[in-house]
């Protein structure tokens, strides 16, 4: 992408209302624009990151056997009357009337609708287990929308729903999603801690929150330091192995980990003080096992091998994909701006031309651009004629993993400078060596395209 043809409305200073660093950086890097309280447009750079995040989630949910569909944002209130949640949900639900005076709403979550889809088509235990998910805008009229997209009134969520014939296999489905979440956050390049949680308005008996470790997080975490070195299952993990799923779940639930609301001082004090880790986190995912809470009142039943009908056992599994983009920035930034983990960076590389208008340098940059593009790089080419300092500041602000810099002096020696955004290391190499280095990094899968 040539910067001159892109739409990147970067700001020199963050508007004063932005209180936390991710909100400031998202505004400064031209990723989002506020349209109203808690409601944002996603500008091209922001959208690109959110898509990358969602693609990793999609790949990992598919790998774990979940199947993607898409449910609408507008929901009929009838379904919510069936589950009795229409009245319980309170003011957070955005309710509207259609032209015939019928109650409809903007979906805050989809348990009811997915249960309706299930009961329309699935009637036998032979078709289970089943897991359906979608990625869709959600609407909640939050009491205090704040911190940019961290707590919005319109936000993106990946929500998955599992259906099983009995309690035991339903728990295994929960463990499968738990394992998939470990892999998702690992691929996103961040430390996340799963913590037992309250079930709140979703309901059920088993629930975990997934928290990204970040100093600016709102949740206080008390956890065993050994959490940070637990092994995340690899891509080859066998999701059809029920025992393995239970093993992984148990391994990740042995150590002490609580948020402040469930913290138990007596248990905590039994832990070796050297292992007591007191950190902050941001909730990016929340999973629930709630059995027949929705299937029973809504009549979602399946026929068992004995010919008898039973309500299906369910769980739901959410990740706030728009919040996740902000949370990643909270975890990965420095004074100069964002430092994207390579797996979700909006572009792999910033090619920076320090003398736009110089025929030789322009031609060399175009040539490099084509070569890198053909090698599969997603490139950001700063071809705008302005001061070098501004170019460096922009590249640092938007946080691409690598920068390749060509200026008059380097050009006259057939050289380029390569800079790593996260370590700050710089290296001057011949053009050929610079290209080779980038190609090798890519082959070594340092880049995830
Ligand atoms: N139905 C269940 C799971 S599918 C559910 O709605 N769970 S939730 O309420 O915990 O939301 C799931 C995730 O969405 C949260 O972990 C959080 O990351 C994100 N989320 C929730 N509310 C907001 C909000 N107002 N703004 C941004 N993200 C939010």
Q: Using the alpha-carbon principal axes, give the shape.
A: globular
In CATH's first tier, which class of the largest domain applies? Alpha Beta
Could you tell me the CATH topology label of the largest domain. Answer: BirA Bifunctional Protein, domain 2
Distance N to C terminus: 15 Å
Q: Give the low-pLDDT segments.
A: none
Verbal overview:
- The protein has 449 residues and is of the alpha+beta class.
- It has two domains: 336 residues, BirA Bifunctional Protein, domain 2, CATH 3.30.930.10; 95 residues, Rossmann fold, CATH 3.40.50.
- 33% of the residues lie in helices and 27% in strands.
- It has 14 helices and 23 strands.
- The strands form six sheets. Strands 3, 7, 8, 9, 10, 11, 12, 13 and 16 form a nine-stranded mixed beta sheet that branches. Strands 20-19-21-22-23 form a five-stranded mixed beta sheet, with helices on both faces.
- Helix 2 crosses helix 10.
- The two termini are 15 Å apart.
- The structure holds 5'-O-(N-(L-cysteinyl)-sulfamoyl)adenosine.
- The site of 5'-O-(N-(L-cysteinyl)-sulfamoyl)adenosine has 21 residues, from strand 8, strand 13, strand 16 and helix 10.
Quick description:
This protein has 2 domains: 3-338, BirA Bifunctional Protein, domain 2, CATH 3.30.930.10; 349-443, Rossmann fold. It is built from 14 helices and 23 strands.
Write the SSE topology.
Elements: H1 21-28, E1 32-36, E2 39-42, H2 44-63, E3 67-68, E4 74-76, H3 77-83, H4 85-88, E5 94-97, E6 103-106, H5 111-121, E7 130-139, E8 154-164, H6 167-187, E9 192-196, E10 206-213, E11 219-224, H7 242-251, E12 257-259, H8 265-269, E13 276-291, H9 295-298, E14 301-303, E15 309-311, E16 313-319, H10 321-331, E17 333-334, E18 337-338, E19 349-353, H11 359-374, E20 379-382, H12 388-398, E21 402-406, H13 408-412, E22 415-420, E23 426-430, H14 431-443
Helix pairs in contact: 1-10, 2-6, 2-10, 6-7
5'-O-(N-(L-cysteinyl)-sulfamoyl)adenosine is lined by residues 109, 111, 140, 142, 151-152, 155, 157, 159, 202, 283-286, 288, 316-318, 320, 322-323.
């Amino acid at each position: 992408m040539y910067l001159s043809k892109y739409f990147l409305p970067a700001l020199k200073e963050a508007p004063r209302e932005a209180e936390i660093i991710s909100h400031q950086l998202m505004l400064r890097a031209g990723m989002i624009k506020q349209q109203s309280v808690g409601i944002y447009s996603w500008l091209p750079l922001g959208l690109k990151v959110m898509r990358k995040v969602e693609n990793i989630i999609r790949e990992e949910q598919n790998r774990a056997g979940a199947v993607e569909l898409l449910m609408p944002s507008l929901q009929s209130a009838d379904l919510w009357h069936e589950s009795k949640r229409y009245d319980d949900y309170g003011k957070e639900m955005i309710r509207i009337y259609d032209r015939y005076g019928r109650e409809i709403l903007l979906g805050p979550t989809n348990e009811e609708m997915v249960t309706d889809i299930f009961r329309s088509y699935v009637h036998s235990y032979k078709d289970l287990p089943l897991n359906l998910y979608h990625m869709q805008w959600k609407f909640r009229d939050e009491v205090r929308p704040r911190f940019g997209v961290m707590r919005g009134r319109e936000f993106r969520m990946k929500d998955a729903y599992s259906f099983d014939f009995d309690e035991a296999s339903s728990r295994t489905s929960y463990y499968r999603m738990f394992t998939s979440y470990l892999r998702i956050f690992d691929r996103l390049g961040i430390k996340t801690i799963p913590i037992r949680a309250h079930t709140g308005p979703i309901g059920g008996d088993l629930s975990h929150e997934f928290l990204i470790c970040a100093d600016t997080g709102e949740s206080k975490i008390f956890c065993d330091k050994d959490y940070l070195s637990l092994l995340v299952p690899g891509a080859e993990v066998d999701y059809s192995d029920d025992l393995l799923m239970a093993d992984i779940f148990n391994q990740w639930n042995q150590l002490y980990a609580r948020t402040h609301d469930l913290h138990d001082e007596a248990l905590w004090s039994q832990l070796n003080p050297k292992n007591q880790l007191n950190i902050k986190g941001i909730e990016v995912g929340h999973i629930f096992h709630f059995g027949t809470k929705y299937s029973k009142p809504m009549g979602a039943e399946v026929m068992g091998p004995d010919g008898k009908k039973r309500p299906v056992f369910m769980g739901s599994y959410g990740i706030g994909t728009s919040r996740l983009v902000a949370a990643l920035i909270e975890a990965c930034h420095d004074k100069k701006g964002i430092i994207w983990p390579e797996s979700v960076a909006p572009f792999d590389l910033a090619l920076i031309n320090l003398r736009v208008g110089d025929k030789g340098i322009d031609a060399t940059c175009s040539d490099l651009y084509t070569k890198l593009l053909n090698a599969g790089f997603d490139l950001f080419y700063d071809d705008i004629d302005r001061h070098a300092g501004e170019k460096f500041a922009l590249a640092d602000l938007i946080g691409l993993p690598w920068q390749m810099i060509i200026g008059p002096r380097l050009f006259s020696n057939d050289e380029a400078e390569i800079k790593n955004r996260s370590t700050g290391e710089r290296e001057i190499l011949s053009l050929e060596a610079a290209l080779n280095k980038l190609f090798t990094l890519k082959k070594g899968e340092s880049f995830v395209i």
